[in-house]
Design a protein that fits this description.
By secondary structure, the protein is an alpha/beta fold. The protein is about 25% helix and about 20% strand. A hairpin with an 8-residue loop joins strand 9 (about 270) and strand 10 (about 280). It is globular.
Length: about 400
């Protein structure tokens, strides 16, 4: 594997689409089309006021008494354009952003890094995996950047193959999965590349992601627990084909953020967006039991109800915190009652209307909760055993952390 660097400007003033929880600017055809069909209960190819009463007037732009898929898509693109014009973080925020390229199994892959300009110590690494149809550079625009310099960690935003991750669902409509792309190998190659250029803390590598990226975080727990100390999947369950053999190589900390009313990734398990072509996940409670058993946690959780800071958002949040398990690992569950397929705290809830993705909690900031959780996770005790076959370090010509791209 070889690596090269493609310079990118540091985000300043104008940012890319900050949709953390939904499909990004041009959504994956399967997810949006399938959700449209779910709402179109009479199957006439249009949405009536009865089918989407709360957002009908906003979407029926031609005032013909029906909402078409084209009108929904146009609404999405207008929202995306407005978000791109939102002010971002300035260049003097103490963060250096670079974009990198790696060739893995003959495929050119990319990832974005946000690093403190002046690291104070070894840097924990937080991977953020986008949702289906997304790109790393888009979620980087509204990800962890505001915390990187202050909290002294490295934020990494890879891009999936053809905008998706191979998360183990075996979904017929996702190229990364039908082509059996080895995304675990890609992630290991990124870590090798990072290790050559940044003072990273190899015992504190973490993964989070939304939707497809959240499901992939579970897949990394199953296949790369030697590398990751903890994961924090958001609105993304454990893939059904992965569940029967789920046995991570190490105890692993877990934070789950899940909307109880998610219309795309069902909390009770089943087909993604109502179609088996998108693959299936197991019920969230069943997934939690697997982690608790694997981590050796038998005690009951402490249950907390978060303050309802915004009664108008239509959600409340219950938090369950279990006792520490083997090696001190932690399991925490944020159950967003009434919440949909969105990142809590995300301004505007994302680009798609509530009828498509559900409600967004304003009672906590999901990204802040994720980082605070990772800060408290015990480090991974790394083995001295050789790496798995095919995961040799990649060559790199990328700059060191204090060099400007």
């Amino acid at each position: 594997m070889r690596a090269t660097l493609a310079p990118t400007c540091i985000v300043a003033g104008i940012v890319c689409l900050p949709v953390l929880a939904q499909e990004s600017p041009r959504p994956a055809p399967g997810s949006l089309a399938e959700r449209f069909r779910q709402l179109d209960r009479n199957g006439d190819g249009k949405l009536s006021r009865n089918e989407i009463p709360r957002v009908f007037d906003r979407l029926d732009t031609d005032r013909d008494g029906a909402v078409t898929a084209d009108e929904v898509r146009a609404r999405f693109e207008r929202a995306a354009a407005a978000r791109r014009a939102m002010p971002g973080t300035s260049e003097d925020d103490g963060v250096v952003q670079t974009e990198h390229k790696l060739t893995v199994d003959g495929r050119e892959r990319t990832y974005v890094v946000q690093a403190p300009e002046r690291p104070r110590d070894k840097l924990p690494v937080v991977f953020f995996f986008h949702g289906g149809g997304g790109r790393g550079e888009r979620v980087a625009a509204r990800g962890f950047r505001g915390m990187v310099a202050k909290e002294n960690f490295l934020a990494v935003y890879p891009s999936g193959w053809k905008n998706h991750w191979n998360d183990g669902r075996q979904a017929a409509r996702i190229a990364a999965q039908t082509e059996n792309v080895d995304d675990v190998k890609f992630v290991r190659a990124i870590v090798d590349d990072l290790e050559k250029r940044y003072p990273i803390d190899l015992s504190r590598i973490f993964a989070t992601g939304v939707s497809n990226g959240g499901i992939f975080s579970h897949y990394l727990a199953a296949k790369a627990a030697d590398l990751f100390a903890g994961i924090a999947p958001v609105i993304g369950g454990l893939a059904e084909p992965v569940a029967p053999t789920f046995q991570p190589s190490h105890p692993i900390s877990l934070l789950v953020i899940q909307g109880e009313a998610d219309p795309l990734v069902p909390i009770g398990g089943g087909a993604i967006a109502g179609s088996d072509r998108g693959g299936r996940v197991i019920p969230t409670e069943q997934m939690l039991k697997k982690y608790l058993a694997h981590n050796g946690i038998a005690g009951e959780p402490q249950v907390e109800q978060l303050p309802d800071l915004d009664p108008k958002d239509g959600t409340t949040t219950e938090v369950r915190r279990w006792p520490a398990g083997r090696d001190g690992v932690r399991v925490v569950y944020y159950l967003v009652k009434g919440g949909g397929h969105t990142m809590p705290g995300e301004p505007g809830g994302g680009a798609l209307p509530e009828a498509f993705v559900g409600k967004t909690s304003r009672d906590f900031n999901g990204l802040e909760v994720i980082w605070q959780f990772f800060k408290t996770c015990p480090p991974r005790v790394r083995s001295t055993a050789p790496r798995p076959a095919g995961t040799a370090p990649a060559a790199s010509t990328s700059p060191k952390v204090n060099e400007k791209p």
